[in-house]
Amino acid sequence: MVRKKGSLILCGAFLFVAWNALLLLYLWGRPPIGRLGEGGGAEPGGKEEWGVGRGKGSQVNLAGEVIRLAEEVEIQLETQKKLLKQIESHRAVWARQKDVGKRETDDTKVKEEVVHQPPKAPLPLKDNVDDRGQIEENHTEQKPAPTVAPAIELEQHQANEIKEEIVKNNRFGTSVASPEVIIPILVIACDRVTVKRSLDRLIQYRPSSELYPIIVSQDCGHAETARVIDSYGPQVTRISQPDLSDIRVRPEHRKFQGYYKIARHYRWALNQVFNTFSQSTVVIVEDDLEVAPDFFEYFRALYPILRSDPTLWCVSAWNDNGRDALVDPSKAELLYRTDFFPGLGWMLLKEMWDELEPKWPSAFWDDWMRQPEQRKDRSCIRPEISRTITFGRKGVSLGQFFDQYLRYIKLNTEFVPFTKQDLSYLLKDKYDETFIKEVYSAPLVKIEDLQQGGSLRGAGPYRVQYSSRDSFKVFARNLGVMDDLKSGVPRTGYRGVVSFLYRGRRVFLAPPEGWIKYDISWS
Questions:
Q1: How does pLDDT run across 18-59, given as a tens digit for each residue?
Q2: What is the residue-averaged pLDDT of the chain?
Q3: Interval 143-176: pLDDT, tens
């Protein structure tokens, strides 16, 4: 492509030089001013030489001829000026396209480790998304090789080039950077008018409304909440869960009616995103979550990792042990694999939804996701510092964990350019080798050593070893991390290891070396 563009530039330059040469030959070889044989010029054998024997009439004719000649020269110069502008405009277009190509090359470095599979073309939420998709589809044919043409053909060629430039600029709007798939944000809402806080941050930090359409799915039929959502106009799309009826449950579960309705809502809303809107992925947040400035950047960068690694099944913005004292504020870019499904701002692929939807539970969907029958030894990605926080104490869980843990979670405030980083270290083979080596090469210490700290030197890492469910819970409580397990998996755990800071030192709460699998009886 670059060779063809260079050839066209050379052809334009050649045409310019040839035009001037023809003009020079034309002026050099043209007849003298005046009519042949009347002594008005310097033709050999004429009666007079230049300026000899002229009368008043010849002087008038000479002035007219000079004016006419000047006009011709002016016309020729104007034509040359147009040619130069054409060449310069083409060079500017090609320079911009070359820069775009260079950015595409830079952004695809991660693909040396990550093989991207193009997603199914989505049914867009807005017409302009569809138009760009149609433009991209209709302009994938190879551009014809340029030829040297006369002025009329050259102008036509220039018009075609300008049209192609406009088309390509539109296409690059969705293809620049690691794969520019549309990533819709699904906001699960019910009767909280404080959804405004969540939507305000999403819209504030959203880099593109076309690439990140916000779909608010509302259950409960709460009119005031609906008015708040609708007040955003075309910035969001509101859809309403149509079935607001109570769900028949066994008597001992009547107090859990809210959990049944939430599971029903999730199923309906995800089917709308994947089957009605035909999207290939989605990021799910609830109406009581506030997002970080690099929330969109985080998911954009991790999308190709999630799609390429079959041992991953989600990307989460949440760190369950993300309290201020437990995270390293200098490591905002640090990411982990985790076997515990975090939720609270998470990305799901359509292929995974196709697997989960037929067996979707009637209630307690998040704990169901943590069961080994669903997880199938797959992991999620989670950050050191959370990219979401929850501000909703009110809810069906009646504030469970909120006062003790959730209200203290630290929200990241530093924008990390994840799309510029090589994240292939998160792929399982690379990650496991480095992770296991780092954990089990760390000095083994007692919990008392960490609490007293006098005999320890440096910021770690240090390893505290547990060997049973009870020892894990005791150590976790004493070190300030969450002590509950789901299907035997500790929160944030990977291969049984929980990583966190304790009084400024990196600590790995880990099982003995040679860990094989989780014991579901530990739940």
A1: 767 666 666 555 555 443 444 333 334 443 333 434 444 444
A2: 79
A3: 333 333 344 444 444 444 433 443 343 332 332 3
Q: Residues in the chain, how many?
A: 523
Residues 6+ apart with CB under 8 A from 271: 357
C-alpha span between 309 and 317 (Å, rounded): 18
Tell me what pLDDT residue 412 has: 98
Q: What is the per-residue DSSP string for 362-431?
A: SS-HHHHHTSHHHHTT-EEEEESSBSEEE----STTTTTTTTTTGGGBPBP-S---GGGS--GGGSHHHH
131 is catalytic: no
Pairwise CA distance, residues 37 & 47, whole Å: 7
126-135's contacts with Cβ under 8 Å and 24+ in sequence apart are: 126/209, 126/210, 126/213, 126/234, 128/210, 129/182, 129/210, 129/213, 131/170, 132/170, 132/171, 132/173, 132/174, 132/210, 133/174, 135/167, 135/170, 135/171
In angstroms, rounded to a whole number, what is the distance separating the alpha carbons of residues 304 and 179? 7
Report d(CA 310, CA 355) in Å as an integer: 13
Distance (Å, whole) CA 509 – CA 499 = 7
Distance, CA of 301 to CA of 347 (rounded, Å): 12
Active-site position among 366, 367, 432, 449? 366
Backbone angles phi, psi at 248, to 5 degrees: -70, 120
